[in-house]
Amino acid sequence: MASTTKKRANLEKNYFGYIFIAPFFLTYLIFQVVPLIDTFRYALTDAKAWYMDPNQAYNFVGLDQFKFVVNDRFFKDAFFTTPVMWIMGFIPQLGIALLLAAWFTNEKIRVKGQGFFKVVFYMPNIMTAATIGVLFLAFIRSNGFIHSFCVAIGYIEDARYPITSEWFGRGIVAFINFWMWYGQTMIVLTAGILGINPSFFEAASIDGASGFQTFGRITLPLIRPIMTYSLVTSLIGGFQMFDVPNMLATGDSHAAFGPKISTIVMYIKSIAYSGTFSVGRACAASVILFAVTAVVSLFLFWIMRDKDAAKAAKAAKKRAKEQAALEGGNI
Amino acid sequence: MANYSGTVKTVKGGYHARILLVKTLVYIVCIFLTILSIAPFVIMVFNASKSRFEIQQGNLEWWPELENRTLVSLLPSKSFIANGKYLLTSKALNLPFARGFLNSFIIAAGATILSVYFSALTAYGFAVYRFKLNKLLYGFIMMIQMVPTQVTVISFVEMMNKWGLTNSYLPFILPSIAAPSTVFFLRQYMQSALSIEMVEAGRIDGSSEFGIFNRLVLPILKPGMATMAIFAMVTNWNNYLLPTLLIDKLEMSTIPMLVGKLNGNKYSTEYGAVYWGLTLTAFPLIVFYLVLSKYIIAGVALGGVKE
Predict the structure, then answer these.
(1) Do both B157 and B284 map to the same domain?
(2) Chain A contact for B77, CB < 8 A?
(3) Nearest alpha-carbon partner for B97 in B261, B263, B246, B239
(4) Backbone φ and ψ of B146, nearest 5°
(5) Range of A116's domain?
(6) B61 in Cβ contact with B71 (< 8 Å)
(7) Quick one: B20 and B112 in the same domain?
């Protein structure tokens, strides 16, 4: 009797759940969902930036803005450069992070000063990306640290010449991405490896597995979900790259590779708020960015999925269903 | 017996040699990466102390071909105070850094307080109440963590322009009420930190539902909320794109915006002052990081952080 009263009391309170979560969803609706719908809507119009056209007298133009954007040379460049710079940074980022994580969790090596190394390796991540961008631009321009180094090793013949190679520029952006994020990835992967049930490693050691075998057959498969998460979040962030390449590409004439390191978000910003102020085109590019990010993320999740586990989960679900059906029949 | 132990020793000896070799390699790589991580900041601070002439001399002047240059060029020099004076008082630059710090602090603090409080509220709503759409809506929050935020930037700016919220801090503060990854983290955190019995005890004592949350639950969630507050603070402090699109008054600029202005051509000959400005903007973050690094590293390891 007492228990039913209590249950009823709880049930009556349960509508409070909606009150507690309401501010979140209201805010998300106003500041995220509405702009997202607007993005899709503007993409089909010839809308101009509000301060160019406060009356918002725009027309429906179908898919014209998409046609313009996909044929725009600058968009094509940005759409090539952005993923390329992301991949160039992410491969060493994941590689070094995995290596460090394997070392830091290795019982036999017992690396001392891990706490110190983690703090140092993560530090660039906390810094303002804008500051990092301007700092590296200062290093690149004539007689900056990197420029002097290039002169010294003979990459640039004369100290008066600036660095002009677009691949050098892309390489710098990729390096900064690597440099800002490898510590973060390393800490996440280390935590993932430490979370693995130690009995797996004991079993491997009893079976006489070598360090490489243990890493390849036990550690890697078991941290795959965490690696997938790192990969996908990094990809989403990579496609949205803005601060660092924006600083490197603008402001200073010494960075002659400027336009060649333009990213998709830089393109979106410039097409909406300079030149023709075409919000319609910017939103069409945004929709493409959204779609591509979604498709590539899902593709990566699909590739990285654990096939055996997926099968097992399916079988378990089926069994549970059958069980439920059976019990239902009994009652 | 003696023989047996002898073989074990030799095997062990080879094994130890290999471990020692690997260990050496590990420390070499770690020390190299330590230098790589710190060097740009060190060069930044040192260059902030150099005159324009010294910086134009370049950074690697001990190279043999460049005979008459000195070896000390990577080291600090004497113009630190002069560069600082120039940056902060020169009419030519006129960048209000003191205001910038205040502005960035207002935005970061406001956004952090809202995001942490309302995320805790939301996470608590999902954790304690068994309402019909609980699972569905929580799944929605998990999903929207993955939505790329920059996709809506243009429409968001347009909306704020229409609402007359240009040169206002509200567009950076108010949306923080909905912070999906913070909700996700605190929901996970509650699973270990919060017990339903405690909530029920509060009900028996006659507290209201909000009273239970504010007086009983919030104090328990403090450690988790503090972790999230650190990251919210940093993320909002570092935000660059949105403020540049919505603020055009110099005295309302945030620190990243002022850094962007350091990048302009007008000041590019005063390299020492540029490095000084970068040092100025990096310094508070470095101190903040070193003081809280223990919590930050632990927070990253918990995987609740997504940028």
Answers:
(1) yes
(2) no
(3) B261
(4) -90, -5
(5) 74-315
(6) yes
(7) no
- What domain range includes position B44? 2-80
Residue A331 lies in a domain: no
CB contact under 8 A, A134 and B289: no
Asked whether the ipTM of the predicted complex exceeds the cut of 0.85, the reply is yes
C-alpha atoms less than 13 angstroms from C-alpha of A151 in its C-beta half-sphere:
25
Residues of A in contact with B182 (CB under 8 A): none
CA separation for the pair A310, A249 (Å, rounded): 45
Task: Report the Cα–Cα distance between both ends of chain A, in Å, rounded.
Answer: 23
B62 and B173 inside one domain: no
What is the DSSP secondary-structure string of B19-44? HHHHHHHHHHHHHHHHHHHHHHHHHH
- Please report, for the domain that includes residue A131, its CATH number: 1.10.3720.10
pTM above 0.90, yes or no: no
Locus of tokens 């892309």: A170
Are residues B199 and B285 both part of a single domain?
yes
Residues B169 and B57 placed together within one structural domain of the fold = no
Residue A325 belongs to some domain of the structure: no
The tally of domains found in chain A comes to 1
Q: What is the pLDDT of residues A133-177, one digit of tens each?
A: 999 988 887 777 888 788 878 888 777 777 778 898 899 999 999
* A163 DSSP 8-state letter: P
Which of B:188-207 have CB within 8 Å of A? 200, 203
Tally Cβ neighbours within 10 Å of residue B147: 15
* Residue with the two structure tokens 């328990």: B220
* Residue B130: other Cβ atoms inside 10 A: 12
Question: Tens of pLDDT along B135-167?
Answer: 999 999 999 988 898 999 999 999 999 999 999
Q: Is residue B307 situated within a structural domain?
A: no
State how far residue B188 is from chain A, nearest Cα, in angstroms.
16
